[in-house]
Structures are given as C-alpha cells and as structure tokens.
Write a structure and sequence with these properties.
The structure is a single chain. With 186 residues, this protein is an alpha+beta fold. It has one domain. It is built from six helices and nine strands, in the order E-H-E-E-H-H-E-H-E-E-E-E-E-H-H. Helix 1 runs antiparallel to helix 4. The radius of gyration is 17 Å and the shape is globular. It starts with 9 loop residues before the first strand and ends in a 5-residue tail after the last helix.
C-alpha cells in the first residue's frame, strides 16, 4: 500500500482576458492582495486577433491576453478555492451580467500545467463546488505536449515560451528549497 504524502506546492498562474486596462489594473491589485507578489508577466497580445473573438461582446471590445505568475507557490489542492475566488472577482467587475475580465487560474509544476474551470466535459475532473480541473499540457522530451482539448493559446509558441520560463523559475526554487530542507525530489 502506498503512503499518501503531502502535495508539493506548485506555481500559480492566472491567465487574464480583458479589454479595459483600468479593470485589469484594479483586478490585478486584488489578485496580488489575495495571492502575493507577481514574479513574471507575459507580453500582452490580442486574444481576439490570434485565437477567438468569443469574449469580445462580453468584454466590450477586443479581448487582450496576459498571463501572470505568482511568486508564492501554492498547494494544488487549493485549485478549486482559487477558482471560486477568481470567479468572485470576475463577478465584482461584471456589468449587467457581462464579465469585464476573465480570470483563469492554473498550476505549473515540473511536468504539467493544470487549469481550473466551471465547464464540465469528459476530460475534466471534478474537484468541488462545481469546479473542475483539466490537464492542459504536460512536459516531456524537453517541450510542452498538448492534448486534443488544449486551448489554442496554450498551444502557441508565445504562451509556451512564457510557461517554460515559469517552469524554470519553479524548478530553480524547488531545487533550492529541497537543498535547504534536505528532502529528496519525488
């Protein structure tokens, strides 16, 4: 029988789609209050122009995309609670039932990227309170590998470069923490 071990903490990222930069700035202040300092930010790019106009009507214009990585690592069993909180933040900025910002939290470790969602489908795993997780990408043979359901932006070279940087920060901090604690890597 295997012994259940405490989950290793992972890097929290939050993908953001927005149109209004003031809403982004205000939401980011809340996210930093909730989850701590940001240690890496992706370049801004047009989600609408490169991937989909799905959010444009709700956001009130062209959807722009950034991804934020948070310095503090987080236990992956908090994923549902974090998604619930980001949903509350989205709701706080909504006008007439339309979101003005979309917040998608995820976790990166040495071998995977998981994203939280409220949308159920066959490849998503229920966590709690209507929140699901999906394995979006896995890292093997020196690169991120996709699944048939991987969102197009997460398949892009631009996003994969960014999450590779996040992974490298995670691995460096993990090695340092394991060295200090004397624990072995799993």
């Amino acid at each position: 029988m295997g012994a259940a071990l405490e989950f290793e903490k992972e890097k929290l990222i939050i993908g953001v789609i927005y149109h209004d930069k003031e809403v982004l700035d205000e939401a980011l202040r809340i996210l930093i209050d909730e989850f701590g300092e940001v240690d890496l930010v992706s370049e801004e790019f047009s989600f609408s122009g490169e991937f989909s106009t799905y959010y444009d009507d709700e956001l009130g214009g062209e959807g722009l995309r950034r991804i934020y990585s948070f310095k503090n690592t987080v236990a992956p069993d908090r994923q549902a609670d974090i998604k619930i909180r980001t949903n509350e933040i989205e709701a706080a900025f909504s006008v007439d039932g339309k979101r003005k910002i979309n917040l998608d939290p995820g976790f990166i470790n040495h071998g995977r990227l998981m994203l939280a969602t409220t949308k159920e489908t066959g490849f998503r795993v229920p966590l709690k309170d209507g929140i699901y997780t999906e394995l979006t990408l896995f890292y093997a043979r020196g690169a991120w590998q996709k699944f048939p359901w991987t969102y197009r932006d997460y398949q892009s070279e631009r996003v994969q470069r960014f999450i590779t940087e996040v992974r490298e920060i995670y691995l460096s901090e993990r090695r340092e923490n394991l060295s200090k604690s004397g624990k072995k890597q799993r």
